[in-house]
Amino acid sequence: MKLVIIGSVAAGTSVAAKARRNNEDAQITIYDRDYDISYSGCGIPYYVGGEVESRDDLTPRDAAFFKKRYNIDVMTRHNVTAVDKDAKTVTVENLETGDTFTDAYDVLVLATGASSIIPPIPGVKSDNVFPIRNIQHAEATRSFVDSTDPKHATIIGAGFIGLEMAEQLKLRGVDVTIIERVPQVMPPLDKDMACRVEEHLEKNGIELMLGETVTELVGDGHVERVVTESGKTIETDFVILSVGVRPNVELAMNMGVKLGETGAIAVNERMETNIPDVYAAGDVAESFSIVTGKPIWRPLGSTANKMGRTAGDVITGGHLEHRGILGTGIFKVFGLAVAQTGLAEKEARELGYDIEVLHNTKPDKPAYMGGKDMTIKAVADRATRQLLGVQIVGFEGVDKRIDVFVTAITLKAKVDDLFHLDLAYAPPFSTTKDPVMYTGMVLANSIDKAARLITPAELQARIDAGEDMQIIDTRKASQFEKACVDCAVNVPLGNLREAAKDMDKDKPTVVYCNGGVTGNAAQNVLRNLGFTDVYNLSGGNKNYQLFKKYGN
Fold first, then answer.
1. Count of Cβ atoms closer than 10 Å to residue 56 Cβ
2. Of the candidates 421, 447, 473, which is a domain's last residue?
3. What is the C-alpha to C-alpha distance for residues 242 and 226, in angstroms, rounded to an integer?
4. Catalytic residue of the set 42, 484, 487, 513
5. pLDDT tens sequence across 239-287
6. Of 440, 438, 296, 451, which is closest to residue 379 (Cα–Cα)?
7. Looking at the structure, do residues 108 and 145 belong to the same domain, yes or no?
8. CA separation, residue 299 to residues 91, 241, 326, 339, 551 (Å)
9. 295 and 306 in one domain?
């Protein structure tokens, strides 16, 4: 069997390595138009910032490595320009010499990846405008920063790479302005979680211009000013483009490969396309959501590796199948970790789920061990009691909690199951009732209507509609005077039983504290006194004040 793979980063090399492990006799050739193979694109911001010292750390394997270890021919700077699916041949151009030749295949894998989106902005091709996608981009950006000692950078786009670049440049002493056309950072996050990231960025000196669109990069081949649609102008020394990527599907389209709903190549669980003996894997290929079963495209190296291994196994007679993804992601900015998996609240509502939403703020470990608060937002389906998605913002322990939630969602666990998990506990690592366990417990109680939750957005909508409600702040008077929910009255928990005698037990009642725990205690008191419609404000006053400050 002769296997030809187009593309040599995460997916392409994973296909080749797995195929070789299964079949020593296969002839395997990889073509790639780039200079580098199997590199860590996700590490590029840290190379630009100097946290990763050498580019060799991002490119640990080269063509010689694959030839020696796997007997695989990796041909860099070779661009496949056409595929004849009937003759089973590829046309290849050697980009160094300009020579063109034809190669035959028995099986073809498209692992052509994705490319940075370059917006059609005047001045975007200036010499100090840098996309961030491959090692050449990394080298060019770092070289510019090292040689020119810039004072200001403008980053267009507030996704993973944009925020990581902002951190790394700021740590190098460069002032940073981020411009994002959506009115929040990290558009995949719900606004009430993204605002926590925005607050942290601003505290660390990052200027945010959200809900703004760049219309022009001004300068004679070298950008000096950035102009937005609203007429704002930013003086800058260079520009980072981080507005997203798109799958490299041109070759696939030209040979008749079907694209999916997301614009990436449509594949089945075996990574097969609509053309016999043609597979696709990695950033160029579409996946599907474990939660909804619908097509989803989330270009990440972790997914590309899984897809590549599956394709390599299937091609050589194996039985692996791609099981879908949750769109899990995590990043760090100025010490703050931000993670997401599954559906956001806004997605779940758009898809028609009847959902329960919890904002749970708890320390990752006891305060006496230096624990710091993390906020977990969890979305569950009331009908099935299954988790639909989770977002976490915090400083420590975020990665291990999101991975527990990923496992729970993947295995269709119910929210009730989370409390019963026998999670590792010792004071240096966790609290006795881990935030994961607490999340499941509160969601289960709310779905059962034993301890119902109301989000800040839902509460504010009812206030704005003029609904007759009792809103009770259960904190100390000094806390109440600093900041409180609109229309609330202050009744500290210790006084609640007596004060409740003068309240209407049948009127909708909302109780809250700072984070939710005392609010839950107050909720239980009122329920036991015969109040029929009592809610605890999800995330407490801290969550409400963020909602009021940053909007929904």
1. 9
2. 447
3. 15
4. 42
5. 999 999 999 999 999 999 999 999 999 999 999 999 999 999 999 999 9
6. 440
7. no
8. 27, 17, 12, 16, 30
9. yes
| Residue-level pLDDT at 552 | 56
> Which parts of the chain have pLDDT scores under 50?
none
Q: What is the pLDDT at residue 550?
A: 82
Show the CA angle centred on residue 434, arms to residues 428 and 440, nearest 5°: 170
Q: Report the SS3 class of residue 454.
A: strand
Domain that holds residue 204: 129-243
Residue type, 72: I
Pairing between β-strand 509-512 and β-strand 470-473 as defined by DSSP bridges: parallel
Distance, in Å, from the CA atom of 552 to the CA atom of 457, rounded to the nearest integer, reads 7
How many H helices and E strands in the chain? 17, 30
In this structure, are 99 and 144 located in the same domain? no
Tell whether the torsion through CA atoms of 333, 336, 341 and 344 is positive or negative: negative
Q: Among the three residues 417, 447, 477, which one is the final residue of a domain in this structure? A: 447
Q: Measured between alpha carbons, how far is 391 from 371 in angstroms, rounded to an integer? A: 19
Q: Tell me, yes or no, whether 478 and 510 share the same domain.
A: yes
Give the DSSP H/E element, type plus range, for residue 418: helix 415-419
User: CA 15 from chain center: how many Å?
Assistant: 25
- Alpha helices (H) along 172-254: 191-203, 250-254
Which residues does residue 4 pair with via DSSP β-bridges, in sequence order? 29, 108
Answer yes or no: are the C-beta atoms of 267 and 285 closer than 8 Å: yes
The pLDDT value recorded for residue 326 is: 97
Q: Is 276 exposed, middle or buried (0-12, 13-18, 19+ CB in 10 A)?
A: exposed
Taking the CA atoms of the chain, what radius of gyration do you get in angstroms?
Answer: 27
CA distance 468 to 458: 14
What are the pLDDT digits (tens) for 96-122?
Answer: 999 999 999 999 999 999 999 999 999
Domain count along the chain? 4
Distance CA 148, CA 334 (A): 24
Strand-by-strand arrangement of the 489-490 sheet: 452-454, 534-537, 509-512, 470-473, 489-490
Whether 343 and 404 map to the same domain: the answer is yes
Q: Are residues 254 and 396 in the same domain?
A: no
Residues sharing a CB contact under 8 Å with residue 374, sequence separation 6 or more, in sequence order? 361, 362, 363, 364, 392, 393, 394, 395, 396, 397, 398, 401, 435
* pTM for this model (two decimals): 0.93
Shared domain for 195 and 145, answered yes or no, is yes
Q: Is 42 a catalytic residue?
A: yes
Q: Which three-class secondary structure state does DSSP give residue 134?
A: coil
pLDDT of residue 391: 98
Neighbouring residues of 356: CB distance < 8 A, sequence distance ≥ 6: 379, 380, 381, 382, 443, 446, 447, 453
Largest CA distance in the chain: 90
Same-domain status, 101 and 8: yes
